């Protein structure tokens, strides 16, 4: 339990924090500053529960590893993650020797001890006993420049030493036991690089970006009590140690002079600190504690200044109160936004943004005089100590008030960076930045920021309305629209309507000034359309209130934007109607083709077809199968082909596309195309009819309608074709004779080959026409060769009486010759038939006398039992079957009618055999039984079942019938 004094001290420390703006403040709607974080100080000090055996002289902490030196020259090493396991190391010393300084690298692995006797030691975390740095004997180490890039636990890599005599050394210390160089020494090498005027109080170096991949670029900062030096140069990656020798040689040789800053009034010592945002990343800030104050600034390694890496430097005084004048600062620590200065009796934190004192922590007398302060670079903790007490500082939200400091300096972007997690603070920054921009005439940028704040909408809007130009007001409204929630319907409607009104007013003013063809007008028009089209919330709002927007645009007489809005709302019917009303048919058709509602095609196509038929048909063709051609027929029929001949041809073009490409079979489409061919392009009618073919099942047009249409327009060839399709060959021939005899001959050959009488009749019609109408006897005689059914006697009645035999003498001779050859062929056929009949009679006689032997041991080919046991059949092929075996084999394959006949004949034979007096039956009864057997033989024994057609018919018969599967399966089991 803490003592009363300790409790008092903790309460006193809470009051040491400077807490600006203690009272809660209402910024605007939605934000209330509760100042919950103010109760927790930025620097929270806590006393470490530790009482040393001897007074503490030095203390360093790195990577949660603490090393403490006591006046008894005993080092206490402590892993703060395991504080219950301390490690004591005793230093070798003479009687009066004391520790001068100790240095711990950022990883907490390597420790260097400098003694007042100018002996120096190295102690790694693995070693239990310090080892002397032999080559540095006789030098008092004042500072060490650690290598921030080193990741090796067993070596320090290249480091720098600064001594009390102004010497700068480079060395590398190692804890390896099996070293190959400098046996027995911890230093790999030691090289003096440079000499400064006065003791070296601080050394820091870090790597810089380099464009050359073969070299590294470094900067080195070194301080004396009154000067800050800079050394910048390149180091080859392949160079042998010492690494920085070439860098310092350029200053030793006089080619370069070291940059330095000198401050007057030094008090014999100084201190140099760097700040790293993260370990092993480049340092971003520096601070140098000197006599007149703390010189601080940024580290700039971008190369903008080749001879310096220090930027934005300032000198901060220690303070103006009387207490600080009487005592000098002992040490300091640099954080991201503060410098902590250690005095013998207090610790003060000064902001490096505005140089104000933000924290003052006096220590009570019982603690004793403060000795030192240090910082754990990796963990961010800060430690102070006196001879008998150790304190630890924890930093909590160091950047909590940084935003306000940047805001006071009008550095708004930095202020936003440090208050982005606090909406109230962000609102303050945005408000002040917006006011700043407004005061400087940047109204548009100011309006965009005002829209992001929680300030009153009405107040800002009235402020912006007073401006002569409305761009800032539009920006404000647009930003507010984008920030509205989906449920804010009323606000959205109001703001969107206001924005549209502003745009229309600006466009109207430009038109009145005659600038409607200027770039400014085009940009304004583009901006308006982008506003209407790009924002989803705006599109939804204007879609719901489209009637209001229509009225608003119409009130300004802006037809162009009215059409644009209608297109945006996909109100294409209104747009197309507008263009048609103004006789702008091409634009109407262009809008029609860009939309996807096919009903609008059916509605507007009749009118468009009258004025832009070609373009309309092209639009239809582009739509392809999406359009129903039947519903476009009203648009196709509304034309006057006397005035608009092109329209008819375009209609034919579309119908041909439907038939040929889309393969429409609808009869109405084909009939309409047929009518257009008959009226406008009769030369293409026959081509269409021939493409349709002559099969009535595949023809798509109405044949009777086509015949009536062709007859109406006197298209005789088409009529001939249609008569032929209808099977009216006589009418086809009669019509063809009015056109061409050759066409009539083609029609005469179309009847079937079996209908010879019709073919003959048609040819006689043609012959009569040729003889009677054309008086061409010779041509009529040629028909005798073209039609084999025509004879000379068929066409002789058509000849006039005065015709001499000379006209058809050759035909008569040819006909007689054909008759003679026909008689000869008939004679030959009769002789061949007589000879064949004689041969058949001989074969029948030979079959009557044919016989075969049956042996007693012969067996039935079906059942395998002796053949002579009962009635049997003997076939010429040699196969033998019992009568009942043959019937049982043949019966399943017979038709049902024949099967019933066989069964009836078997019953009749059975009745005859079972009669009591069958031995004395009459001859008539025997003849009747013979007839029954003969009929039975014809049905079952007409052929051998093994080598006749019966076997071929049974080739697909199953080996095992379906009803036999169960019994067969049982047998196999």
Put the structure in a nutshell.
By secondary structure, this protein is an alpha+beta fold.
What does this structure look like?
- The protein has 973 residues and is α+β, with helices and mostly antiparallel strands.
- Helices cover 42% and strands 18% of the residues.
- A hairpin with a 3-residue loop joins strand 17 (215-223) and strand 18 (227-236).
Number of helices: 35
Multimerization status: single chain
Distance between the termini: 97 Å
Sheet with most strands: strand arrangement:
3-30-29-28
Calculate the mean pLDDT score and round it. Answer: 82
Q: Helix/strand/pairing class, anyone?
A: alpha+beta
User: How much of the sequence is in beta strands?
Assistant: 15-25%
Helical proportion?
A: 40-55%
GO molecular function: protein-macromolecule adaptor activity; zinc ion binding
GO biological process, one term: endosome to lysosome transport
Domain Pep3/Vps18 RING C-terminal: 856-953
Coiled coil: 816-857
Question: What is the fold's blueprint, element by element?
Answer:
Blueprint (H helix, E strand, L loop, with lengths): L3 H12 L10 E3 L2 E2 L10 E5 L8 E7 L2 E6 L3 E6 L7 E4 L8 E6 L5 E6 L4 E5 L6 E2 L8 E5 L13 E5 L3 E7 L13 E9 L6 E7 L6 E9 L3 E10 L8 H8 L6 E4 L8 E6 L6 E7 L4 E6 L10 E7 L5 H5 L4 E4 L3 E5 L3 E6 L5 E6 L7 E6 L6 E5 L3 E6 L6 H7 L3 H6 L5 H17 L3 H8 L6 H9 L5 H13 L5 H24 L6 H16 L1 H9 L1 H10 L3 H10 L3 H10 L3 H10 L3 H14 L1 H11 L9 H5 L7 H16 L6 H14 L4 H8 L10 H10 L3 H10 L3 H9 L3 H8 L7 H17 L4 H10 L5 H4 L13 H40 L23 E3 L5 E3 H8 L5 H18 L9 H18 L8 H5 L11 H8 L1
Antiparallel strand pairs: 1-2, 3-30, 4-5, 5-6, 6-7, 8-9, 9-10, 10-11, 12-13, 13-14, 14-15, 16-17, 17-18, 18-19, 20-21, 21-22, 22-23, 24-25, 25-26, 26-27, 28-29, 29-30, 31-32
């Amino acid at each position: 339990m803490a003592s009363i004094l300790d409790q008092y001290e903790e309460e006193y420390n809470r009051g040491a924090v400077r807490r600006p703006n203690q009272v809660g403040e209402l910024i605007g709607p939605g934000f209330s500053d509760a100042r919950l974080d103010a109760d927790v100080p930025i620097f929270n000090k806590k006393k470490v529960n530790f009482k040393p055996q001897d007074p503490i002289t030095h203390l360093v902490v790195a990577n949660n590893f603490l090393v403490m030196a006591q006046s008894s020259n005993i080092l206490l090493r402590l892993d703060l993650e395991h504080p219950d396991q301390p490690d004591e190391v005793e230093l070798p010393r003479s009687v009066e020797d004391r520790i001068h300084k100790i240095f711990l690298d950022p990883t907490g692995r390597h420790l260097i001890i400098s003694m007042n006797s100018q002996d120096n030691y190295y102690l790694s975390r693995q070693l239990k006993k310090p080892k002397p740095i032999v080559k540095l004997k006789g030098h008092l180490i004042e500072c060490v420049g650690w290598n921030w890039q080193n990741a090796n636990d067993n070596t320090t890599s290249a480091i720098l030493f600064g001594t009390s005599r102004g010497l700068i050394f480079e060395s590398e210390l190692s804890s390896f036991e099996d070293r190959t160089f400098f046996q027995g020494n911890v230093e790999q090498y030691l090289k003096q690089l440079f000499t400064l005027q006065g003791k070296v109080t601080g050394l820091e170096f870090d790597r810089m970006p380099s464009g050359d991949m073969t070299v590294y670029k470094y900067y080195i900062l070194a301080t004396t009590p009154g000067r800050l030096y800079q050394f910048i140069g390149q180091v080859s990656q392949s160079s042998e140690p010492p690494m920085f020798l070439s860098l310092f040689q350029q200053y030793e040789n006089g080619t370069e002079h070291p940059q330095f800053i000198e401050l007057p009034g030094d008090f014999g010592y100084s201190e140099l600190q760097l700040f790293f945002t993260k370990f092993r990343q480049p340092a971003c800030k520096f601070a140098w504690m000197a006599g007149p104050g703390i010189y601080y600034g940024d580290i700039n390694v971008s190369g903008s200044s080749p001879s310096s890496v220090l930027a934005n430097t300032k000198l901060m005084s220690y303070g103006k109160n009387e207490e600080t004048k009487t005592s000098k600062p002992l040490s300091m620590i640099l954080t991201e936004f503060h410098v902590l200065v250690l005095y013998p009796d207090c610790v003060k934190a000064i902001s490096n943004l505005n140089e104000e004192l933000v924290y003052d922590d006096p220590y009570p007398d019982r603690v004793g005089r403060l000795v030192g302060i240090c910082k754990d670079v990796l963990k961010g903790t800060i430690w102070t100590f006196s001879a008998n007490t150790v304190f630890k500082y924890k930093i909590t939200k160091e950047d909590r008030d940084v935003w306000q400091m940047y805001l006071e300096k009008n550095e708004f972007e930095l202020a936003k960076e440090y208050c982005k997690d606090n909406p109230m603070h962000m609102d303050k920054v945005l408000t002040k930045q917006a006011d700043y921009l407004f005061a400087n005439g940047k109204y548009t940028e100011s309006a965009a920021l005002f829209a992001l704040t929680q300030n009153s909408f009405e107040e800002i809007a009235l402020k912006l309305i007073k401006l002569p130009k409305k761009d800032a007001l539009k920006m404000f409204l647009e930003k507010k629209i984008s920030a509205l929630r989906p449920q804010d319907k009323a606000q959205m409607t109001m703001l969107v309507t206001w924005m549209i009104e502003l745009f229309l007013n600006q466009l109207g003013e430009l038109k009145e000034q005659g600038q409607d063809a200027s770039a400014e007008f085009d940009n304004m028009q583009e901006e308006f359309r982008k506003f209407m089209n790009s924002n989803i919330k705006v599109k939804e709002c204007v879609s719901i209130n489209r009637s209001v927007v229509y009225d608003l645009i119409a009130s300004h007489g802006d037809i162009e934007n009215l059409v644009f809005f209608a297109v945006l709302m996909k109100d294409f019917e209104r747009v197309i109607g507008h263009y048609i009303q103004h006789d702008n048919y091409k634009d109407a058709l262009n809008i029609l083709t860009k939309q996807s509602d096919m009903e609008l095609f059916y509605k507007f196509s009749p009118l468009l077809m009258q004025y832009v038929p070609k373009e309309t048909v092209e639009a239809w063709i582009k739509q392809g199968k999406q359009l129903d051609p039947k519903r476009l027929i009203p648009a196709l029929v509304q034309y006057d082909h006397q005035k608009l001949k092109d329209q008819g041809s375009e209609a034919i073009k579309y119908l041909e596309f439907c038939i040929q490409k889309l393969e429409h079979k609808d009869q109405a489409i084909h009939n309409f195309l047929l009518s257009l061919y008959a009226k406008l392009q009769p030369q293409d009618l026959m081509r269409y009819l021939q493409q349709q073919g002559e099969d009535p099942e595949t023809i798509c047009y109405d044949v009777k309608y086509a015949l009536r249409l062709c007859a109406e327009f006197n298209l005789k060839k088409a009529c001939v074709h249609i008569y032929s399709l209808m099977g009216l060959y006589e009418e086809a021939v009669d019509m063809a004779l009015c056109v061409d005899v050759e066409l009539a001959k083609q029609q005469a050959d179309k009847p079937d080959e079996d209908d010879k009488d019709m073919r003959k009749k048609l040819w006689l019609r043609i012959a009569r026409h040729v003889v009677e109408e054309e008086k061409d006897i010779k041509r009529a005689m040629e028909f005798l060769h073209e039609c084999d059914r025509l004879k000379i006697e068929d066409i002789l009645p058509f000849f006039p009486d005065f015709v001499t035999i000379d006209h058809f003498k050759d035909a008569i001779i040819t006909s007689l010759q054909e008759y003679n050859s026909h008689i000869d062929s008939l004679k030959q056929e009769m002789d061949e038939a007589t000879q064949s009949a004689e041969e058949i009679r001989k074969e029948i006689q030979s079959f009557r006398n044919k016989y075969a032997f049956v042996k007693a041991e012969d067996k039935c080919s079906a059942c395998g039992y002796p053949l002579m046991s009962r009635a049997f059949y003997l076939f010429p092929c040699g196969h033998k079957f019992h009568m009942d075996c043959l019937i049982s084999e043949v019966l399943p394959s017979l038709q049902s009618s024949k099967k019933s006949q066989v069964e009836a004949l078997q019953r009749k034979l059975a009745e005859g055999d079972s009669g009591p007096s069958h031995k004395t039956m009459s001859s008539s009864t025997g003849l009747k039984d013979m007839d029954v057997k003969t009929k039975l033989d014809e049905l079952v024994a007409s052929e051998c079942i093994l080598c006749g057609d019966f076997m071929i018919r049974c080739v697909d018969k199953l080996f095992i019938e379906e009803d036999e599967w169960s019994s067969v399966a049982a047998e196999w089991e």
